[in-house]
Amino acid sequence: MKIKYLLFIAFTFVVVSVSAQTKKKKVASPAATATGTATELPRPKLVVGIVVDQMRWDYLYRYYDRYSDNGFKRLMNEGFSCENTQVDYIPTFTGPGHTCIYTGSVPAITGIAGNDFIIQATGKSMYCTEDTTAQTVGSTSAAGKMSPRNLLTTTVTDELRLATNFRSKVIGIALKDRGGILPAGHTANAAYWFDDKTGNWITSTYYMTDLPQWVKDFNDQKLAETYLKLDWNPLYPIDTYLQSTADNTKYEGKFKGTDSPTLPVKTSALYKGNLGLIRSIPYGSTFTLDFAIAAINSEELGQHSVTDFLAVSLSSPDYIGHQFGINAVETEDTYLHLDRDIASFLTYLDAKVGRGNYTVFLTADHGAAHNTAFLNDHNIPAGVWDDGAALKDLNAFLLDKYKTEGLVLSLANYQVNFNYKTVDYLHLDKDALKKDCIDYLTKQPAIAFAVDMKKAQTSDVPEALRTRIVNGYNAEHSGEIQIILKPAWFTGHGSGDSGPTGTTHGTWNPYDNHIPLVFMGWGIKHGTATRETHMTDIAPTIAALLHIQAPNGSIGVPISELFVK
Questions:
Q1: Is 94 among the catalytic positions?
Q2: Three-class HEC string of 340-386
Q3: CA-to-CA separations, 204 to 176, 181, 381, in angstroms, rounded
Q4: Whole-model pTM?
Q5: Which SS3 state, helix, strand or coil, does residue 147 take?
Q6: How far apart are CA 509 and CA 241, in angstroms?
Q7: What is the pLDDT of residues 419-467, one digit of tens each?
Q8: Which residues neighbour 24 within 8 Å (Cβ) at sequence distance 6 or greater?
Q9: Contact 138, 193 (CB under 8 A)
Q10: Which of 243, 366, 406, 563 qualifies as a FRET site for 182, CA 20 to 30 Å off?
Q11: Catalytic hit among 85, 92, 94, 99
């Protein structure tokens, strides 16, 4: 009897302990098993991915003193920041970046080799989300002829849908079509993007044949026009923007219809017939998050028995960065506006989903370079490589040797794309042709390396570059030769003292390659990691958090130290 009594006490202790642990982890509503017993796998009610288009890692700290306590600072002070997150491939553009974040994979596998890429077999240029079989829903424009069909792998959002027998809701939202479509994956309930012609949020027949009523109601508010009527006014006196250059420099591009690249911008007088102007002001992010909140409310995201996923991309910082560069008052003001928007959005999630019931991560698809003229004026070597002029010069060189015009179609994505119809018709020696191009290109003053993609692993370039070249090379969608420019050089048009205005991205260098990555909320502990992590690690980390399979092309690994034990 004594032994039975002790066994009973031990069994009771185990049951109580397990029950206590289960109650401690409970978040989602119970789901019934086959036997009818209520069980529960600990998961957040909602995952929200926020991708800030063109956000350099150092923006977390460059404007830190002026951020509020509830925006970027809250993410860092409550969440886990991966301080050394690197992009795994080149070229570093928006389409491949959003794809990598949500697939854990690289262009070599996903097929998304650029925003635009050339199908090597045909020579045809293809936009990353182009789909001629899809039709626009919500507008009469052609802006909706898009889908994720060019993406060859699953996303973590797809895997969540598969893991829950498609009961989880997944929605992607961005002003840019590719920023909403690629993160949402193949099986999303919806992806929405902005139509400049109407000022509406639209989608395509890939997802549905008619907009939900809540989207129509939201569009009826004409918020894009409302925000444009507010004008872009700085949040603070201009002379307090100490992290920026003067508010009128040769490094910045002005809005059409204005006399100078300065704040305030009277968008109320500029937008007539151009609702797309909302993309290029901070209110573009506000507008996007307004729509995200409407989606959460109307689709009841985070209110189901399984985890839902909202993928939001904030596109406006990219448009603003391209126009003004990274040292402009306009850029600083953009991130101060964005900090307020994120603070409001997190406060909303606290109230709607419940603080501690959702997981959010914030990252970027790429960074951005300093304006080249700005660097030159501060005695830092930099320059602009005119890829259009370079294409003409390269083809002229090849014409002289091969007596054939147009052997190279394009130098887009910093790659040599050959005209294979002509090359094959003339039975030219492809290896000899590549060698001639490489010999020519490496003699050009802007170019550090020109690498045969298929021989990248044995090329005489630093290992970090070799890896990124290999990861970025998709045999069907990439050129044959990867061009690596010297540091602080990028493609553009303009030279001399003035150079091009604004900035761009696309290279392997830290300014393009080093991105922010912060997780916060359910299942995430507070802390930082300074070890090298990768963009490819984001999707498998979310998969591990949710106890689902990583995407089927993923090459990343979970960032295990950020999980609550």
A1: yes
A2: HHHHHHHHHHHHHHHCCCEEEEEECCCCCCCCHHHHHHCCCCCEEEC
A3: 14, 10, 46
A4: 0.93
A5: coil
A6: 27
A7: 999 999 999 999 999 999 999 999 999 999 999 999 999 999 999 999 9
A8: none
A9: no
A10: 563
A11: 94
